[in-house]
Design brief:
This protein folds into 3 domains: 9-271, Cobalamin-binding domain (Rossmann fold, 3-Layer(aba) Sandwich), CATH 3.40.50; 313-430, Transcription Regulator spoIIAA (2-Layer Sandwich); 462-618, Transcription Regulator spoIIAA (2-Layer Sandwich). The chain is built from 24 helices and 22 strands. The radius of gyration is 27 Å and the shape is globular.
């Protein structure tokens, strides 16, 4: 890892007692514990929280990847903070970080130097919090980040194959901050500085806490209350667990949400409604904090950190995603409403990247959770404030949604003009359905076509990522994704622009197997359709149930939380491997297995499509091979059993 000589050690938040001493501090206000290496960059939550607290005059330190197996010296080395300990598992849920879709332990960790595994425990938020409460029982612990956020109510844990209670019930933490934490943290700081103890912080939006079940809820005249089925009821009845989720998802994505409560044993988890979306000014303030944009110098001799290497020359334009995909956790954590940075803030970061020591002139991504949602919001925000739809674009694009791509196209063009920039690429996934909005105004439609031409002609690094996810409209509907017909249309336009611009670029589509609703026959059809499109798939994955998604609720309960209809999901290893192998129909080692399976499920038509040019014999017994031509009057008579 190259070291930027412009910086000195004090330009990072301290991570050791020696670094605290070098700053001349005799105590710390907040100590943050994280399961990731400390990278001082706005893409990493612990850095954002640390810089935010620092900007408001607090003395903050970060303890990255503390050792939880030894005498716990990492948890003791900085002593007691004046205000609270902050805990996060890191940028990923620790179980997703540790295990594959087949529950196999991963051999690497992208958020650790040299990609080494084993630097954080399973359920890191719970483990760190418990240790701190044991060592310092009188010091408040505030947990946050994606792991705590997505596990704030009863949730299915794929790795233990059971329902687990909200994380507050197991972690012993005093307060939980869910979602993107800047707004609630600023309110927490404001009240703490006025002398209000953490134990009294009961009415801060976007936080959750635990109280005795018999205790009266704190008063707030602006909030309505919604009681969920208790954890015990969910354990006894999967149907109730499924019904709970609809309320959780809708309230997580409403402008004016209800306060939710859920009983867990003799306790009650109280989840206050979220803050409204951040303004452009608030988001700029967060991104404009004095990050070095580099890993802490403690890692200089420990090897590169893969997650940093992937994003170090990228720029995040916005937060939030209104896609609402059934398998995705983005809206559950960041919300469905888009919070966009100003052009000035974005170009300021682009300019800062040009001064990084190993920058060669290429921005790897000007993107976000989805590449093309920048500055998009409701034309009439009052309608948005009443809306309960989990997706603004499924089952159709909302007529109130402004899908004008002009502001995003301007960002691309202005970023290309920054001195030192040779080319900017778009690495985030593009929502191609946003480019075919039939309900859009003529101005919006023009902007979409201009954007697509700009994107394909100037911002694709040879391969453009898009995520159709499946080819079956039945499965896509459960996924909350558009019909595959739109992908055909997008591919045709992509290839047309390539021909016009004399380019030779590829689309790289992403697909998922074993998603709830998907059966083996659907995967066989997917293989046929992608073969016809001349794809040999590379970017594929098995569905992994993660907390706080519609698909996970279906996987565990068998019910769709909105329709309450029963839906099939592949559970066994064999079922999942059967679905997955159709991705790789072109590999010789899978051909015989696929032929045997298609013969077994009586889909010779699909077999002929997948492997044309070879005569395929029906291996069923002769008595079952009856065609219209060979049937006789006698054969067509009904048969009776004695």
């Amino acid at each position: 890892m190259n070291v930027d000589r412009r910086y000195k050690m004090e330009d990072w938040l301290p991570t050791s007692a020696k670094e605290v001493e070098r700053r001349g501090w005799d105590s710390l206000d907040v100590i943050l514990f994280t399961g990731d290496a400390y990278i001082d960059h706005p893409s990493f939550g612990s850095a954002v929280v640390g810089r935010l607290l620092e900007a408001h005059g607090l003395k903050v330190a970060i303890v990255p990847q503390p050792n939880w197996r030894d005498d716990l010296r990492d948890f003791k080395k900085l002593g007691r903070p004046n205000l609270f300990f902050g805990v996060t598992s890191g940028a990923m849920d620790s179980m997703v970080n540790h295990y594959t879709a087949n529950r196999r332990k991963r051999s690497d960790d992208a958020y650790t130097p040299d990609g080494r595994s084993g630097a954080r425990p399973d359920y890191a938020s719970i483990e760190y919090s418990r240790i701190l409460k044991k060592l310092f029982p009188e010091v408040p612990v505030v947990i946050g980040g994606i792991e705590a956020s997505l596990r704030r109510v009863t949730h299915y844990d794929y790795w233990q194959d059971e329902l687990k209670p909200g994380v507050l019930a197991e972690s012993q933490a005093d307060l939980l901050v869910y979602g993107m934490g800047e707004q609630p943290l600023l309110e927490i700081i404001r009240l703490l500085e006025r002398g209000v103890p953490v134990s009294s912080l009961k009415t801060i939006a976007q936080t959750a806490f635990l109280q005795d079940k018999e205790e009266t809820l704190p008063k707030n005249k602006n909030w309505k209350d919604l009681e969920l089925f208790s954890h015990d009821e969910c354990l006894e009845d999967k149907f109730k667990y499924a019904k709970n989720f609809r309320h959780v998802e809708e309230e997580s994505n409403r402008w004016h949400a209800a306060r939710m409560t859920q009983d867990v044993g003799d306790k009650r988890i109280v989840i206050n409604p979220p803050f409204p979306p951040m303004t452009t000014g608030e988001l700029d303030d967060s991104f404009d904090l004095p990050y070095t944009r580099l890993p802490h110098p403690r890692y200089v001799a420990k090897g590169p950190i893969p997650a940093f290497e992937m994003i170090k020359f990228s720029v995040n334009l916005h937060r939030g995603c209104f896609g609402g995909c059934s398998f995705c956790t983005i809206s559950a954590h960041q919300g469905k409403f888009i919070a966009s940075r100003s052009k000035e803030s974005i170009l300021k970061e682009v300019e800062a990247i040009t001064h990084m020591p190993d920058f060669k002139g290429y921005i790897s991504d000007l993107g976000g959770p989805s590449a093309n949602m920048y500055k998009m919001q409701g034309k009439n925000l009052k309608i948005c404030q009443r809306c309960t739809r989990p997706s603004c674009i499924f089952p159709n694009i909302c007529t109130n949604l402004n899908t004008d791509h002009s502001a995003l196209t301007d960002i691309y063009r202005d970023a290309d003009k920054v001195p030192g920039i040779k080319k900017t690429f778009i690495g985030s996934g593009v929502r191609y359905d946003m480019l075919y909005n039939n309900m859009a105004s003529s101005q919006e439609k023009d902007s979409q076509q201009i954007y697509m031409t700009e994107l394909v002609a100037k911002h694709v690094s040879g391969r453009l990522k898009v995520a159709p996810e499946h080819t079956s409209d039945k499965v896509l509907s459960i996924m909350r994704k558009p019909t595959f017909k739109l992908f055909h249309r997008f591919k045709a336009d992509f290839e047309r622009i390539n021909r016009e611009k004399k380019l030779n670029q590829q689309i790289i589509p992403y697909f998922i197997s074993s998603h709830p609703g998907s059966q083996e026959e659907d995967m066989a059809k997917l293989a046929c359709e992608t073969r016809e499109l001349d794809f040999k798939l590379e970017q594929v994955q098995d569905f992994t149930p993660t907390p706080m998604t519609v698909a996970t609720v279906i996987y565990y309960s068998g019910y769709h939380p909105y329709t309450l209809e029963k839906i099939y999901a592949a559970h066994t290893k064999d079922e999942k491997l059967l679905q997955r192998m159709y991705f790789f129909w072109y590999k010789p080692e899978y051909r015989k297995k696929i032929e045997a399976r298609l013969d077994k499920i009586k889909r010779m038509d699909l077999l002929k499509k997948l492997f044309p040019g070879k005569e395929h014999k029906d291996k069923r017994p002769d008595s079952k091979k009856q065609t219209n031509k060979t049937k006789t009057h006698f054969q067509s008579k009904p048969k009776f059993k004695r």
